[in-house]
UniProtKB/TrEMBL annotation:
Residues 314-325 have a biased composition (Basic and acidic residues). Residues 314-336 are annotated as: Disordered. This is Replication initiation protein. It comes from Herbiconiux flava. The lineage of its organism: Bacteria, Bacillati, Actinomycetota, Actinomycetes, Micrococcales.
Length: 336
């Protein structure tokens, strides 16, 4: 059951007034706009993630945590807690955190390539999950798309496959990484980067840790790095400005004329992907959630709960406003 919502105005920073003096949540997914609504969104997805792991049928499946990243668009600064040297030759520490992910040379860095990859990353994931399902028909997934410090998306996916056809970690990783897609905008071949990982985990403590990891990634995404999260990193401002300029100049679709296009894709480093997603139930598939939990279902449950609480409150107020002698008056059944 999703967390019980508060129906009060204070539970949302920017409630929307509707008829009869009632309000509804603004529904923002961004913490800097409305932290309560963003937290509700995160909680909904965390509940969906759990519902595909901690249920009775889970014993018949094997679980993987798969991470896929974008390719390189040029060397960037790295900050190592172990003191390892950066590609620039220096050893950066915590005082240089604002350099993390910024290019060594902004003049040669492939900004257009990076924002275009963000734009097409959703298509690439679609081709990837199709490729995986072609090999392992029982595969279901839960995905969170997180921003790397350099301003490019990478994918964390919980993958569930029936034990009867289960691959090894290496097989799953190789199949996922080798997937490609062709951009519908410019015909470029889109592919994953060299950095990737795939680990199995068991239901129980390891499963809880995997869910926590995904929730942490989702919490980071809700800060909306593309629009606000990088803005306070002092020396990264040139990198941010160039990313924004590249996203503004990029075509978001084949018919796009960037100077006149109002699509939000131009405002988010090229990204058009949803923050989180999960495979859905069909006539022949369970979907990720064993209980068919979706955000739509969670909203319905909250609405039903809020209506029930409103009825209880109305009855309580009616009882409090009833005159004392009226409440004590005999009924027809009392008088015979």
């Amino acid at each position: 059951m999703p967390p019980r919502p508060s129906s009060s105005r204070s539970s949302c920073v920017h409630p929307i007034d509707i008829s009869d003096g009632r309000t509804v949540r603004c529904g923002s997914r961004l913490k800097h706009r409305c932290s309560p609504c963003a937290e509700l969104y995160r909680g909904d997805w965390a509940a969906i993630a759990r519902s595909g792991v901690f249920e009775d049928p889970a014993a018949h499946y094997k679980f993987f945590l798969l991470t896929l990243t974008a390719p390189s668009f040029g060397p960037v600064h790295r900050v190592s807690s172990a003191g390892r040297p950066c590609p620039c030759g220096s050893r950066h520490d915590g005082n240089d955190s604002d350099l993390l992910g910024t290019p060594l040379d902004v003049q040669t860095y492939d900004y257009l390539g990076q924002v275009s990859w963000n734009r097409d990353s959703g298509l690439l994931w679609d081709r990837t999950r199709r490729r995986l399902r072609d090999r392992w028909d029982s595969l279901e997934y839960f995905v969170v798309r997180e921003w790397q410090a350099r301003g490019v998306l990478h994918v964390h996916a919980l993958v569930r496959i029936a034990r009867s056809e289960c691959p090894s970690e290496a097989e799953l990783l190789t199949s996922a990484r080798s997937a490609t897609a062709t951009s519908a905008v410019d015909g470029v071949i889109v592919q994953w980067g060299a950095q990737a990982a795939c680990d199995t985990f068991r239901v129980g403590a390891a499963g809880a840790k995997a869910i926590w990891y995904m929730a942490k990634a989702l919490n980071y995404v809700l800060k909306d790095l593309a629009r606000a999260g990088l803005s306070d990193r002092g020396r990264s401002w040139v990198h941010i400005a160039r990313l924004n300029a590249a996203a503004r100049a990029m075509r978001c679709e084949s018919s796009c004329y960037p100077p006149d296009c109002m699509s939000r894709v131009h405002q988010r480093f090229g990204s058009r992907s949803h923050v989180a997603s999960a495979s859905r139930a069909t006539a022949r598939r369970t979907g990720w959630s064993f209980t068919a939990l979706t955000r739509s279902r969670q909203r319905t449950l909250r609405s039903e709960w809020a209506q029930k609480m409103a009825c209880v409150a109305d009855e309580r107020r009616a009882g409090e406003s009833r005159p004392a002698d009226e409440s004590a008056a005999p009924t027809l059944s009392d008088t015979g």
